[in-house]
Amino acid sequence: MVSEQFDAFLLDLDGVVYLGDEALPEAVESVNRLNERDNKLRFLTNDPRFQRETIANRLRKLGIDAEKDEIITSGWATAHYLSQQDETTAAVVGSAGLEIELQEEGIEVTDDDPNAMVVGADEKTSYQDIQRAARHIQRGATFVGTNPDGSFPTLDGPVPGAGAIVRAVEAAAGTEPMVVGKPEPLMFEMALDGLADDVQAAAIGDNPATDILGAHRAGLTGILVAEDKPTTASARDLQQPDLTISSLAHLFTDTTDTWEAPPYSWPDELRPGVAAVVVNDVDEVLLLKRADKEQWALPTGTVERCEPVGDAITREVDEETGLQIAVERLIGVYSHPEQQVFSYPSGKAVHFVTNCFRCSIEGGTPEADEDEALEVGFFDMNDLPSDILPMQPQWIADANDADGSPAIR
């Protein structure tokens, strides 16, 4: 049984335990059964409107014995995060409950030059609120969104969530927020605080894009509550659940495997890229030591809007090394996430789909661009430096493939 495989369960609320004011079928009995088995329970919700005590009271009315400290809302998590960052003042677009959670974490709610601009959800949010938030952000307040959900379920159908307001403020301010709620790992990490380091935990939710993705980003098993298993474009998609169940009662009948985190981060964006195997007249390959990673690499770059890939690689090589090149042929297209997802110091992860070309030199003298490269040089293809980006020796080998057909990797 699933219930026997884990020490702790992180349970979403809307769509898993209740919908509106009504408990979902078999939810209360199942949660209480987990409690009786001494499973550690945490209740996670991306709804930032209510205080934790309000949610705990709501669960108790349904027949679930829940304590305030077992509740993790995106509103409280945002307040706790700002407190950990030593922020002392914040303006708020959101509910009275969100404001109280901030105040209880020692953060003054004010529109007088706030350190942070917190954007959540409230039925009374107006155009003027969006305008006020954008103004504070443009004046230097840190933009923090409680959660990214565009909507959340009710008995009458979906209603706008905090994510809808966050994106409106983002569009108005021209600045991306720091988001606290699911699918960011932070809420899951807060939920695990106080539990043993070796605890085996699973997260249960009804939304692949927040609950399952967030669980997997936090390194946890993700269980989806749904009538049908979702379809994702790739088996490597972190939104793919480890198990799909129609109700919490199936925790006592089905089995699943624990999540094994892949060796790449979930990408924030997908970006088209280009690379060049530039060969001189003695069959040496051009490499540069990139300033951002301090490793040897082929010249690479991104494709700009309305730019053909052939133009992109000739431009990038010229900008990075000062060489003018001619494109001979396409070597291959590379997109495997284990090789092509890169995480940057900013925290952003990018998945590149890279078109790699074999190129010859038409003119110029190789020089390092101080912003892009520390060194530039030519190397024997059979004696490459040991600190070269790990996937690129394969690209260089593909450039020498006798049949000349492009590789797809």
Strand arrangement across the biggest beta sheet: 5-4-1-13-14-15
Q: Major sheet: size, sense and barrel closure? A: 6 strands, parallel
CATH topology of the largest domain: Nucleoside Triphosphate Pyrophosphohydrolase
At the first level of CATH, the class of the largest domain is: Alpha Beta
Note the overall shape.
globular
The strand count comes to 24
Which percent bin holds the helix content? 25-40%
Helix/strand/pairing class, anyone?
Answer: alpha/beta
Q: Could you state the CATH homologous superfamily of the largest domain?
A: Nucleoside Triphosphate Pyrophosphohydrolase
Which key terms come to mind for this protein?
409 residues, alpha/beta, Rossmann fold, Nucleoside Triphosphate Pyrophosphohydrolase, 3 domains, 6-stranded parallel beta sheet, 12 helices, globular
Describe the structure.
This protein is of the alpha/beta class. The chain folds into 3 domains: 2-46 and 183-252, HAD superfamily/HAD-like (Rossmann fold, 3-Layer(aba) Sandwich), CATH 3.40.50; 75-179, Rossmann fold (3-Layer(aba) Sandwich), CATH 3.40.50.1000; 269-408, Nucleoside Triphosphate Pyrophosphohydrolase, CATH 3.90.79. It is 27% helix and 28% strand. The protein contains 12 helices and 24 strands. The strands form 6 sheets. A 6-stranded parallel sheet has the order 5-4-1-13-14-15. Helix 9 (208-217) links the parallel strand 13 and strand 14 (221-225). It is globular and about 80 Å long. The mean pLDDT is 93.
